[in-house]
Amino acid sequence: MWPRRSQESGVRSQEGRVSRPLSPPPRGNDRGRCAAHTPLDQNSLNPRITSSLAEWGGGHGDEGPSWPAFRRLGAILLIAILLLTTACYQQQMGSQPRYDPLEPSTLFADGRSARQPLPDTVARGQLHEDTLLYAGTENGLPADRFPFPVTHDVLVHGQDRFDVFCSPCHGRTGYGDGMVVRRGFIPPPSFHTDQLRQAPVGHLFEVATNGLGAMPSYASQVPARDRWAIVAYIKALQLSQHADAARLPADLQQQLEGAP
Ligand code: HEC
What we know:
- Helix content is 41%, strand content 3%.
- By secondary structure, it is mainly α.
């Protein structure tokens, strides 16, 4: 039976193994059916398998089953179990008994599958009790100090973040002539006015946090500590354009006086 079959639809390799072309994938209604549930066709079994079955059944006289036969049978069982446990359940992952986001539900009176959080629920890691750090306020007023020491590293980081998030409108030097403004966006005020120079740092932080007028909020894009670093850099920008010569070191003051 086997040789004839392999001549028709298969290829016999040098070792005498028979390999048949793969059957096409199931279509239409057959899609969900599990191959392991179709009854086994004796003829479709590999000759090695049938021979080991014969050995197991005592096909070679009184000797009884040999160890290789045991091992082959074990392998067959293992493959059968794997097929039963894996192949059959694949399709069930496509329709899981759960709700998709915003899917309606008849279970709850309000018809929604998602529940509203209880009043005053705070997500993990979002209990922002430190108003100075997160709101820029102290006792309900804009703070006039930073929540952490302003070091050189903080300024360097602030410059980097300012150039990314603020300079498109405020310009690299803070004069309010960024690229977006040059292409028609509402111009923001220059940072180099008496009013913004004297504004408490908490006010600058608060504007970056909540936005103002045409300026959007940056709270979701720039973390609180980064916003403070940006504010520190804005103070440095302001100083760069409006420094008090009397605060310079003596040697630099002399150089300045000697300059034309
Ligand atoms: C899309 C353009 C745009 C970007 C980007 C932008 N701003 Fe503004 N900003 C504005 C505009 C417009 C105003 C003027 C708002 C008003 O007075 O109505 C403004 C005003 C301000 C003011 C002055 C507030 C006052 O009291 O007058 C500060 C401070 C400020 N922005 C900080 C920032 C910081 C910090 C960033 C970056 C995190 C930033 N801005 C990014 C457009 C922008």
